[in-house]
């Protein structure tokens, strides 16, 4: 049969763990399970910009890419569930479960029309890092200038009385170095990637995560159609939940590695949010979740909050069982 | 790889037929991409690139630094810088030419473009040197060469563009340009001394300014100094980011112009329109170059070039030497921004792949571009001097600029051989 | 007619550039002194920037202001000039027509996806449609070059700058007038 060579456009550096531990091994696996009939080639640089990767794959400028749903606000309201608070602690567990929930409840509503969805997941629990003042309660948030990562965290910061700063990671680093902002919302992995650990004085780790990101891997549909039905099935078997697990594991490792560095850094005090603080936060996010549910309903999901609750329950149970 | 070669050839043919560079690169990029990928993908790419090259936050530095430069040029700051330099240096041998270089360096520290620097300084320095009987060759050459510092001493529009297309930290690039800029000033002074030593008639002595005049003249440079301190100090204190510095600097220049009552509504409109027009020209170029880059990405040129370089047994040093020579030749023929946009997407990955520092390479490129501004036959600064002083034969200008070209080659060698010259400051400031 | 459009787009672009400067200033001052950065400053900047550029593209095309390499003055012949004029009109017109067409499609998609800016929720579709229309006008301006006799060749950018500085054909040295005396 005809060999199909897919071109991969990556906006992450070649050495990034998502490429090294997830995407490249996945490409090798695709080649293996299709006995070489499908290959993926990495382009020297990304096609287009990080923000336009969905358009790039949809119209065939590249065949495979890795996208962050939050980069195109409002386009994927259902996938936004993966950005909410208190989704889970262990990405190895909640990432594949998210893929399953999405496929079951949301995929039929065709949010990703125009591309083939290889996997979708929530990636890592988010926390609060500050330069000087530790954040131990909602009260502590008041007046702090904190970097926000997207519309959900912006709303969250506004809700707790903090001042959201929306700047690129490079600019955030500059402002943190100079101390002109007070801190940043960040996943553990991002804290290390952005070299924030040496700058920061306090980290409040939030059990279950204060926020997360929705990541997806997509393939161009006409290229996908060129692949034989058996090979597509073989590829799907190593994608979907398997790819979400691989991605979740990679983020889990990166998070754990970063947390180790954080705890080993004497200038950074790492603490875990108290039960009282978490309870406070859970109240704060309720209206934000209701907002999300409105948007998800408009997209056709019958009972978004029920899906969210079921998802959280399953993740909690699975994390308990794993202990 | 063959496709890439055909693409480069086609662009060069179109460019040398005087098709606008933006159109030439855009059209070749579209056809190349369409041929290699698909026509549908190529047509979507054209729209995505035009949208994403303009609707991107980081790009805002370009029009704002251009605006800042044009506002500053309209405030008479250049005259004061020159008067101060003249008061201290004018009486020495070749002192007015040295003063021109110093004042150009000062002006460069608040203006991001070399063309704006040469136009502004030319208007101020040329009549003065004429008055004291300086040879036209020395006068025009010192202005043309001194003004090249505009793109090396921060702020610099060219560095911003390099930073954006290669994702290199702009604050680090700025810091890295500072010491090479100072070396540039020193070497240009050497070039002036050399010219005067060869031909003492080229620079008759001028009057010595009394200390009272010197102090007074020094008081005139406050505006330039203030703006420089605000922009650079603002970046390194974190008051604003390197991106925001452009807007803040433009606002500062606007306030200075207002305070000095140099700004009528009509003049402000002219400056705004002119800056917006220059930016539109530049963005068209950036869009064209981005289309060409997307085509190169699929052409296999990067890997082929890297394989060739690693397979040829060239040492990394030899590769840098070859790249420098290519840029010196291109610099004779092309405008600097177009040169950067056309070639960096091809060379950058190779140079970085060989383990070189992106900040250092950026500074090296900017210095090579400076050289290109004063090398004939296509040297924008020489053209400007020709317009500023049309009665000076172009041959005199070229003869006059040869010592400056020579010291520029030495500077390229210094910067290439000793990365620390560029990297010391950024490492100090950004760790 | 064209003159009027050009004046209007020029005013629009100048205003937007001024706005760009003011937005950055307010954002920085707000963040540092008032503990209140301009909400949605970055996204406003992006839209205003695109507007400021696209409003001027037609005029830049029509005036032949795009950067060209002025190398071969020696081999300038009427034939080469004619070929150049043809190439610029056709290639420039075609490229911008393509940009206009595909931006229109992109705008339609943004409408379908209900794409909005993250903080202020400004819909993106109208912005992209406007860019498409301006790119279309730019394409027409390139085509119009084919029918112009007085097509400009040279470094227009530089000439404007010199003019703005009051440096005329006789430079700052008054070369011409000296000869006349
Ligand atoms: Na400068
Ligand atoms: Na040159």
TrEMBL record, chain B:
Domain TRAP C4-dicarboxylate transport system permease DctM subunit: 10-420
Keyword Membrane applies: yes
UniProt-annotated location(s): Cell inner membrane
Lineage: superkingdom: Bacteria
Keywords tagged on the record: Cell inner membrane, Cell membrane, Membrane, Transmembrane, Transmembrane helix, Transport
Function: Part of the tripartite ATP-independent periplasmic (TRAP) transport system.
Subunit structure: The complex comprises the extracytoplasmic solute receptor protein and the two transmembrane proteins.
Pfam families: DctM (PF06808)
Keyword Cell membrane: yes
Source organism phylogeny: Bacteria, Pseudomonadati, Pseudomonadota, Alphaproteobacteria, Rhodobacterales
Family recorded in the similarity comment: Belongs to the TRAP transporter large permease family.
Protein name: TRAP transporter large permease protein
Transmembrane segments: 6-36, 57-77, 97-122, 143-165, 177-196, 217-236, 242-259, 280-301, 313-330, 337-356, 362-384, 405-425
NCBIfam families: dctM (TIGR00786)
Membrane topology: Multi-pass membrane protein
Automatic annotation (TrEMBL), chain C:
Main location: membrane
Keywords: Cell inner membrane, Cell membrane, Membrane, Transmembrane, Transmembrane helix, Transport
Domain named Tripartite ATP-independent periplasmic transporters DctQ component: residues: 20-149
Transmembrane segments: 7-26, 46-65, 86-104, 124-147
PANTHER family: 2,3-DIKETO-L-GULONATE TRAP TRANSPORTER SMALL PERMEASE PROTEIN YIAM (PTHR35011)
Family (UniProt): Belongs to the TRAP transporter small permease family.
Quaternary structure (record): The complex comprises the extracytoplasmic solute receptor protein and the two transmembrane proteins.
Protein name: TRAP transporter small permease protein
Source organism of the structure: Ruixingdingia sedimenti
